[in-house]
Amino acid sequence: MATENQHYDILIIGAGPIGLACGIEAQKAGKSYVIIEKGPLVNSLYHYPVFMTFFSTSQKLEIGGVPFVSISNKPNRNEALEYYRRVAEKFALNIRLFETVERSEKLPNGDFEVFTNKSNYQVKQVIVATGFYDIPVLMNIPGEELSKVKHYYQDPHLYAFSKVVVVGANNSAIDVALETYRKGAKVTLVIRGGEIGSYVKYWVRPDIENRIKEGEIKVYYHSELTHISPNSVTIKTPEGLINLENDFVLAMTGYTPNFKLLANLGVQFDKEQNPIHHTETMETNVPGLYLAGVVCGGMDTHKWYIENSRVHAEQIMKHIVGAQR
Question: Most buried residue, 55, 177, 221, 319, by CB count within 10 Å?
Fold first, then answer.
């Protein structure tokens, strides 16, 4: 049963790096705030592969002016989890974990009433910093519902000595292919286009190209899965249909922002399904409702990263404080 309305100046949806940065800026501006997160702290980073290394340097991942010290120039997932937890501790951020925002209503006085699965909040502004890692892009083929099909990947050990099909051409797919191969999996890559993705990390590209050249990882270009069964998969290739024995399908087909939540909050979209917002203030078509971080890019998930969207927190707070003078 929901408790009586809790009152804050600002409610921030998402306790990822950008959501935390927004909380820090709200705190600096003397605003009362609460950060609502449906999972653990920095939920998306927690679900990254265990051995993932960031493309960015540690300096570019810093928030709140807190130095991010890592062993190497490019930090890994575990270092990032520790860093953002320490940042949350340093600023004693007001965070509610494992609580899900369901909807929001605009009140006659211009405030928002935000409903979660645990409570209600009445706030003057709402900042959405939910990222894009929540909802996988489905292949929509028979058998995709089988338990052997994974849209998220964490540890390669699970796939040791298995027959694995990896779907995708960019960083996540290539990392998965290489890591599972090195744990003894027999790996087949299925790629819609004619080459490895242009976003693949420069230090990884030679590795995957050499593994393919040596025949250690099989790749089918201009191809796609058409059917998945408990013991095999069917691949549509330029040469026709191929049936392979298979234990696991790792579909690294990308993810989308939670468009349903944005729509429930009243956010409008352009014809490319990008959420409409002002690029300087980050305010949406709903007065007092702001977007921050990767969610701003809609389906273009390569547009925004931690390093280039950290500034959204300052932009938003500048607009909020300026509008109230």
Answer: 177
> In one letter, which amino acid is 236?
K
| Average pLDDT score over residue span 40-53 | 91
Which domains does the chain show, CATH number per domain? 6-135+255-323 (3.50.50.60), 138-251 (3.50.50.60)
pLDDT at res. 248: 98
Q: How far apart are CA 75 and CA 58, in angstroms?
A: 6
Given a contact cutoff of 8 angstroms between Cβ atoms, the answer to whether 155 and 49 are in contact is yes
pLDDT tens-place string over residues 277-319? 999 999 999 999 999 998 988 777 667 778 888 899 999 999 9
| Token pair belonging to 43 | 């939920």
Cβ 161 vs Cβ 146: under 8 Å:
no
Sign of CA dihedral 141, 143, 148, 152: positive
* Cβ-contact 282, 290 below 8 angstroms: yes
CB 14 within 8 A of CB 128: yes
For residues 185 and 157, the answer to whether their CB atoms sit within 8 Å is: no
Per the structure block, which two tokens stand in for 76? 């890994």
**How large is the average pLDDT for residues 11-37?**
97
Let me know if 239 is exposed, middle or buried by CB neighbors in 10 A (0-12, 13-18, 19+). exposed
Q: Tell me the sheet residues that pair with 250.
A: 150, 166
With a cut of 60, say whether residue 153 has pLDDT above it: yes
Torsion (CA) 270, 274, 275, 281 in degrees, nearest 10 = -100
3-class DSSP state for residue 317? Answer: helix
Cβ-Cβ contacts under 8 Å for 99 (sequence gap 6 or more) = 36, 37, 38, 116, 117, 118, 119
First to last CA, the chain: 38
Q: Which of 106, 103, 100, 50 is CA-nearest to residue 79?
A: 50
Whole-structure pTM value:
0.87
